[in-house]
């Protein structure tokens, strides 16, 4: 994974970000590749692709949103994306990584130990259950590749403080999905404020970040149990 270091350095520089985290990201990549041999963490195994499609894609958020000194929860983080690269590149983030699969959370704890990131909180929980104790307690909630926006909003928006943001990473072809989520956002106290498409350095790939502002507290009846969210999305 040493070969990832120059790719990451160049990519971070292209994004206008400090490249001081490049070595830590490459170490994370090595741990991910190693663990991926024994459990399913990612379909992306080529080091250059991993650098671009996981690490730089995640880090690109820092060029669009000011996450400095913010409490950030990454919902359905899986192998740590986008949350952990954000924290590695921007150390002032107070990060909570949340996933429903315990083995993935165990992997994240191993990575945080190896990279000496003792302040990163790794939680094994379903987002809709975590909200019972941690309602409206994060400045920012991020999420990538977890569910369609109607369902995802019910998982994420209850966790966001009023005035904060739910940052949803989506494809550039998410117009219809976004339009279908309009009612869900309204019911949950959110409003789509901004849509930013961005390019992943060194690739032709473009992705999208939706800025959903929490404009009002989420009514207490949300989030519902997952079976209801799935059966009857808002
Ligand atoms: N965000 C990562 C990424 O972009 O590589 C992982 C995406 S993976 C396809 C989806 C992850 O969401 C899985 O690890 C799954 O366990 C988690 N997940 C799905 N529903 C969830 C929920 N309700 N609460 C917490 N995690 C959830």
General description of the model:
The protein has 234 residues and is α/β, with parallel strands linked by helices. The chain has a single domain, classed as Vaccinia Virus protein VP39 (Rossmann fold), CATH 3.40.50.150. Helix content is 41%, strand content 23%. Strands 3-2-1-4-5-7-6 form a seven-stranded mixed beta sheet, sandwiched between helices. It is globular. The site of S-adenosylmethionine has 19 residues, from strand 2 and helix 7. S-adenosylmethionine binds at residues 75-79, 81, 98-101, 104, 126-128, 144-146, 155, 226.
Write a brief caption for the model.
The protein is α/β, with parallel strands linked by helices and 234 residues long. The protein is 41% helix and 23% strand. The protein has eleven helices and seven strands.
Shape annotation:
globular
CATH class: Alpha Beta
CATH architecture group name: 3-Layer(aba) Sandwich
Structural class: alpha/beta
What number of structural domains do the residues give? 1
Write the layout of secondary structure elements.
Layout: H1 4-14, H2 22-35, H3 47-59, H4 61-64, E1 71-75, H5 83-89, E2 94-99, H6 102-114, E3 121-124, H7 127-134, E4 138-144, H8 149-156, E5 160-171, H9 175-180, H10 182-188, E6 190-199, E7 206-214, H11 226-231
Parallel strand pairs: 1-2, 1-4, 2-3, 4-5
Antiparallel strand pairs: 5-7, 6-7
Bound molecules: S-adenosylmethionine.
Quick tags:
globular; 41% helix; 234 residues; binds S-adenosylmethionine; alpha/beta; seven-stranded mixed sheet
């Amino acid at each position: 994974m040493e070969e990832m270091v120059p790719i990451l350095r160049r990519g971070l520089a292209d994004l206008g970000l400090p490249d001081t985290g490049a070595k830590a990201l490459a170490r994370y990549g090595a741990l991910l590749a190693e663990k991926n041999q024994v459990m399913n963490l990612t379909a992306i195994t080529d080091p250059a692709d991993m650098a671009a499609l996981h690490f730089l894609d995640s880090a690109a958020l820092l060029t669009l949103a000011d996450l400095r000194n913010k409490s950030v929860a990454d919902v359905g983080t899986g192998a740590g994306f986008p949350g952990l690269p954000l924290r590695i590149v921007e150390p002032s983030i107070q990060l909570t990584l949340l996933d429903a699969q315990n083995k993935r959370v165990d992997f994240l704890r191993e990575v945080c130990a190896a990279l000496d990131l003792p302040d990163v909180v790794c939680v094994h929980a379903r987002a809709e259950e975590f909200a019972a104790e941690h309602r409206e307690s994060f400045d920012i909630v991020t999420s990538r590749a977890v569910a369609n926006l109607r369902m995802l909003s019910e998982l994420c928006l209850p966790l966001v403080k009023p005035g904060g943001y739910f940052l949803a990473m989506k494809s550039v072809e998410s117009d219809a999905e976004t339009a279908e989520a309009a009612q869900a956002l309204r019911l949950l106290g959110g409003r789509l404020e901004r849509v930013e498409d961005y390019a992943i350095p060194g690739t032709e790939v473009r992705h999208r970040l939706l800025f959903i502002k929490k404009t009002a507290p989420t009514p207490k009846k949300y989030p519902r149990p997952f079976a209801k969210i799935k059966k009857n999305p808002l």
